[in-house]
Amino acid sequence: MNKINKVSLKIKNKTGDYMNADFRFPDQVSEKLPLVILCHGFKGFKDWGCFPYMMERIAEEGNFAVSFNFSYNGTGENDSDQSEFTRLDLFAENTFSRELNDLGSIIDFLFENRELYDYDTESITLIGHSRGGGISILRTASDDRVTGLIVLSSVCNFDRYSDVLKNKWKEAGHFEVINSRTNQMMRMNYTLIEDLEKNRERLDIQKAISEINVPVMIIHGAQDVTVDYSNAEDLYSRSNKDKTKLFLIEHTGHTFGAVHPFEGTTKALEEVMTLIEDFLKKQI
User: How far apart are CA 121 and CA 37, in angstroms?
Assistant: First the structure.
């Protein structure tokens, strides 16, 4: 098997913030490789659970695999704490627009530095998990550089908060969620809601999915209690059926049985990987 190289770097976004990123690619290639970019979800990060395993597999299949941390996802800047939420101050200030812009900055960087690596900027597939799925849908609809889209356990709408909660949130100026893995209280400032209301059209996932005309694959676990499977059905119902496929994975949830720290693959995750690999082969 061809050795997989891994390069870790910091990519600056348009507002001067840095995003930690990993590039994985086969050692010896005779042609430019299709690009595959992974977007993590809420309380996620590029090294969460199965993500490194997935990106390694994708690289082994002859792709240039890119994973990154959104600039305000809350993890640390140093190599030692990129899986730890040491920047809760940034997490509190994060917004959907910021993440959408971050993804654009990643694609910009890949275009601006295409002479340094053997990847093909004519073939860019986004993979988004959960909230990252919504970001990937929005980017695909608005960015004609993207040529394929895979969403895993994706939300169909960012406005998932009741009016009662939003009123309390506004009064307090923030809302707190607990991270069940670390037991940290993670604050989200009301600026998240203000961003959603100010940029409602730009952040409309349901409208965006209906405007996409590149190949799309929607994958969801039947027992997902974090993001219900009805989100996948909603996305599919609005999509271009000639270009979109929907797959329900039975007997599994939001992360297809994978946990953090990673304890190995699962039957459901292998089903997902087979679907991803087949989809990517068709994009070449």
Answer: 12
Element (H, E) at 103: helix 96-112
CATH number of the domain encompassing residue 44: 3.40.50.1820
**107 vs 101: CA distance, rounded Å:** 10
Nearest to 103, CA basis, from 122, 120, 83, 126? 126
Which residue intervals of 211-254 are DSSP H helices? 230-238
pLDDT averaged per 10 residues, the chain (length 284): 91 96 92 97 97 98 98 90 93 98 98 96 98 98 98 98 97 95 95 98 98 98 98 98 98 98 98 98 83
284: tokens are 């070449």
In a domain, 80, yes or no: yes
- Which domain covers residue 258, as residue numbers? 4-161+200-283
When divided into structural domains, the chain yields a total of 1
> Amino acid identity, residue 80?
S
d(CA 244, CA 233): 12
